[in-house]
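Thread: "does anyone have the structure for this chain?"

Original post by V.I.:
We have the sequence but no experimental structure in hand. Need at least a predicted one for the grant figures.
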Amino acid sequence: MSNSRTGTAPAPPSNGAGGARGPRRRLLFVVLTAAVAVALLVTFLVARQSPGGSGTPAPSAGAVGGWTTVWRDDFTGAKGQLPSGRDWLFDQGHGYPGGAADWGTNEIQSYTGDPANVSLDGRGDLAITPLRNASGQWTSARIETRRTDFRPPAGGVLRFESRIKLPDVTGAAAAGYWPAFWALGAGERTDANAWPGVGELDFLENVNGDNRIHGTFHCGVGQGGPCNEKTGLGATTTCQGSACQGVFHTYALEWDRSTSPEQLRWYVDDKLYWTVRSSDVDARTWAAATTAGDFIVLNVAMGGDFPNGVAGRTTPDGGTRPGVPMLVDYVAVYSHQGAAGGAAKATTAAAGTDATGRIPAAKATRHSGTAAVRGSSLASISQGDSVEFAKLDFGGGAPLSKVAAVFSSGVPAGAKGKIEFRLDSPSSPTFGSVDIPSTGGWQSWQTLTQALHTPVTGVHDLYLTFVSDQKTPFLDLATLSFSR
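Reply from O.Q.:
Generated one for you, tokens below.
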């Protein structure tokens, strides 16, 4: 079957242990929009509606020693700007020229490169927004990386990762919503009949606003075969601590060639929930699906075989709410040489989180006082509050001598505030500080870089103490990073 999957997806298993899955979309040739804006390079990702807001990427495997960042997009830039055309291609219409209609899965939307459907939100996120016009026609967006060579090094591990807020819509209003973060084998770019033999990795799929995440591996032949097509080898999980919708969660897959048999491992918020091993299929099938490298896809489909199959009816319908975006904070690919992904993460975490990476304030090990977690920030920080970051790795080479903070402050001009930095104990002498001026409003973010009093190396617990002459909150802190 050329570039397509048809049929109705059976309901997925409820025990999260694997089973039937919904069909996916195919990808052949990419049609670029006529003009693609180049993303602006800025130093901060966060913006605000009130003190606190969405924002910067959470620390990840790529920010831990031993992992190397292969590729990353933080979606920084002005509101309404398209994502970078240097990194992304934009799909168009109801299918590829010569390919299956409706993307092979009976989706009803038309994909566009219109900023109304796909653009930066000005707060460090990419928004993919499905819309319905007055005549009832749906539009949305699907983008894919230009690069098609994402593959683990020999004997190493590759980690695909994204921090995503699924559309904040549930129940009848969510009927037909099908957001996804996934990858396809490079052969799909040139061969209309390459799927599923070239492999497909679905890191994240969600349908109809359910509090359930689907992860799947597709391979082999179009019907049946070693991957049980057209459903694939997959499992489901729920989001812990909060709903999947309307809240940022981190979705990842580690492709591990350091183990025998090789493994594909699916994570939500760094919790493993599904593993496929090369021994689960025959050697020829595995090689065909994992040899050429992959490219990444982000999209929000509307309707189609998967949401229809789960709902037991045609979706979307008149009760479906348009205009609810999927927000993507960042997409990254990390590589680790010579150790299994889980083992590598455990080992390097013990060594310490890399202090030179952006450290979201919300990822503090602990905090005390009035500060509250808002997105990736700590908001409403007041005089006397404190924060701890356990096991930061400042490196073993040349000492780090500077600290950069991304923050906002809506206090009156002339008010005084400061962040004080200490190592290993909240009562240790300060080794650095950042003076905090008013930025003119809680939605006005500023980056300040200041020299440390004492350069630092090694692995330490980092303590922050906040000092102010104000009786009310004076600071929202987004990220920290240290440099030479």
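V.I.: this helps a lot. DSSP finds three helices and 30 strands in the chain.
O.Q.: and Confidence is low (pLDDT under 50) at residues 1-65, 340-351.
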